[in-house]
Write a structure and sequence with these properties.
Layout (H helix, E strand, L loop, with lengths): L2 E2 L8 H5 L5 H18 L4 E5 L6 H15 L4 E5 L5 H14 L11 H17 L7 E5 L6 H6 L5 E6 L8 H14 L4 E4 L13 E3 L16 H10 L19 E3 L5 E3 L13 E5 L8 H17 L7 H9 L1 E7 L8 H15 L3 H6 E6 L4 H13 L3 E3 L9 H8 L4 E4 L3 H6 L6 E4 L5 H13 L1 H18 L2 H15 L1
Parallel strand pairs: 2-3, 2-4, 4-5, 5-6, 6-7, 10-11, 10-13, 11-12, 13-14, 14-15
Antiparallel strand pairs: 1-3, 8-9, 8-12
Helix pairs in contact: 2-18, 4-5, 4-7, 8-13, 9-10, 9-16
Bound molecules: uridine-5'-diphosphate.
Length: 490
């Protein structure tokens, strides 16, 4: 049965207005809102997705909803649920297929299961949604809802798909064929880039780019002491001296040489306050390219520190010698219903245990507590800020908010041109660096070395990246685009 989310607090219009470099965004947004207010009068906007926490969609919705409400557009957020693990296995398979991965064969009874689980959630929503309301359904999991709700209530229905692939294969075709009958019930589709618009939505689709909240806990500026406090309280570093706030109840755990997960600062400091650090923060999803990233880091150390390609410059070599890799993802407790996530953790675990003790010291695989959304966001924020380079080594990526988050913080980003989302955000050599193949450990290792060696370039990439996010990927653009679209369709 679905439930309505109590939207977590986020910044209001006046908070943004108080920040010099954001004030003009607020003015523009208010002007857009004035233009559509009369058209949307009396209509509530319903956002529906399949999780209240974890991943890009749950990340963006609270800020969007707070802003919409603040601008005078009543908005609710509902999350669908299912007690059938097979339902989420199926939707995960569909997710992978849309990314062109996995078997195009869906299990027997897939359609019945998909319809049954959507129907029980549709009943909850039908009781609450009023005629004339606007239903925005996010991603494939709840996509059968619109047809079911519209049999009972006359609503305007839009489908917001956050995933996609810029090419077709048997898997993508099978996924879209499966979804097509459910998607007919939507007036309009919204995608992150034109390359993702499936045939079913030709002539009734718009592109709205995902965005970040510059004042949210994930992205707001943190004073130096605050960064140290968060890293210490979450057990990512050993306490350098007494701190005012107490340690967090749930802390960051690090994979140990004996295979256990223990508080990250238990035996050793990763070195976040002093060493060069390369970080990737993502869900434990194979398509995030964790394994090739770990292999590339091992190659970086082998080749460029003592190997044939060892750097001659003393300071450069020392930087390569000291650099450490942080692989950070959600606490496995929070993803118990995600068998693929568990498999990815086990696979990385096995790869890590096969490394030499010295290499194990240089690679920190850490799990971030998810019990508090706010603390999780602050930990990610502080960890990204403590990084010399942020990597997003995704083999596929709908958009990649983690890329935007690093760009906003002026942390040089290393990603690849194969993943469509990152390629759209990062102009190679301007806002960061792109490799051509995220699975080529040699190319990735050489690029890491190159980036570590050129601090002046790192500063320039960071500056340019932040400007790009400021003009293209802040939440104001996203909310304006939604309001203009809804005004047009209403
Ligand atoms: N994230 C997080 N904690 C984690 C892992 C990821 O807060 O342990 C966040 C990350 O900072 C980003 C979002 O989850 O805001 C992931 O969005 P993205 O678009 O990068 O990928 P998705 O998960 O949607 O595939």
């Amino acid at each position: 049965m679905a439930f309505v989310v109590d939207v977590p607090a986020s910044a209001t219009l006046s908070d943004y207005e108080a920040v010099a470099h954001l004030a003009h965004h607020v003015e523009e947004l208010e002007e857009t809102a004035r233009g559509v207010r009369a058209k949307l009068k009396g209509r509530k906007i319903w956002m529906v997705n399949s999780t209240a926490q974890g991943g890009g969609v749950a990340e963006m919705l609270p800020t969007m909803i707070t802003l919409l409400r603040d601008l005078g557009f009543p908005t609710e957020w509902a999350v669908i649920e299912s007690s059938e693990p097979a339902f989420f296995d199926l939707t995960k398979q569909i997710h992978n297929m849309i990314h062109g991965e996995g078997s195009p064969e869906l299990p027997a009874g897939a359609r019945e299961l998909f319809e049954r689980e959507n129907a029980s959630n549709a009943a909850f929503l039908t009781e609450r949604i009023k005629p004339g309301d606007i239903l925005i359904v996010h991603d494939p999991q709840p996509s059968a809802l619109a047809g079911m709700i519209r049999e009972q209530v006359d609503v305007l229905a839009l489908w917001r798909c956050h995933i996609g692939l810029d090419l077709e294969n048997a898997s993508t075709r099978a996924a879209w064929d499966f979804l097509a009958p459910f998607l007919d019930a939507y007036e309009h589709g919204v995608f992150s880039t034109t390359a993702y618009v499936p045939e079913a939505f030709t002539h009734r689709a718009s592109v709205i780019t995902p965005a970040i909240d510059p004042l949210g806990d994930k992205n707001r500026e943190l004073h130096f002491h605050k960064v140290v406090g968060i890293l210490t309280n979450s057990a990512l570093v050993r306490s350098p001296s007494p701190l005012v706030p107490p340690p967090y109840d749930d802390v960051v755990n690090r994979l140990q040489g004996d295979g256990s997960f223990r508080p990250a600062n238990m035996w050793d400091n990763i070195g976040l306050l002093s060493r060069p650090i390369i970080t990737q923060v993502s869900r434990w999803d194979r398509l995030k390219g964790w394994r090739p990233l770990m292999e590339a880091f091992v190659e970086l150390k082998r080749r460029f520190v003592n190997g044939d390609d060892a750097e001659q410059d003393w300071a450069y070599r020392r930087r390569l010698d000291l650099v450490r890799l942080v692989l950070a993802g959600p606490d496995p407790e929070s993803i118990q219903d995600d068998p693929e996530g568990q498999e990815v953790i086990e696979d990385l675990h096995a790869a890590y245990l096969s490394l030499s003790p010295e290499m194990q010291d240089d690679i920190a695989m850490v799990t971030l507590p998810m019990s508090s959304r706010r603390r999780n966001a602050l930990i990610v924020n502080a960890l990204q800020r403590a990084s010399t380079i942020v990597v997003q080594n995704s083999l596929r990526e709908g958009f990649g908010l983690t890329v935007t988050e690093a760009m906003w913080k002026r942390i040089p980003i290393l990603t690849n041109s194969r993943a469509c989302g990152p390629r759209h955000q990062v102009r190679d050599g301007v806002d960061g660096c792109l490799v051509s193949n995220p699975e080529d450990s040699g190319e990735l290792a050489a690029m890491m070395s190159e980036m570590l060696g050129h601090h002046r370039n790192r500063d320039l990439w960071g500056l340019s990246a932040q400007r790009r996010v400021h003009s293209e990927y802040l939440v104001f653009n996203q909310v304006s685009a939604w309001l203009r679209l809804l005004g047009r369709l209403a």
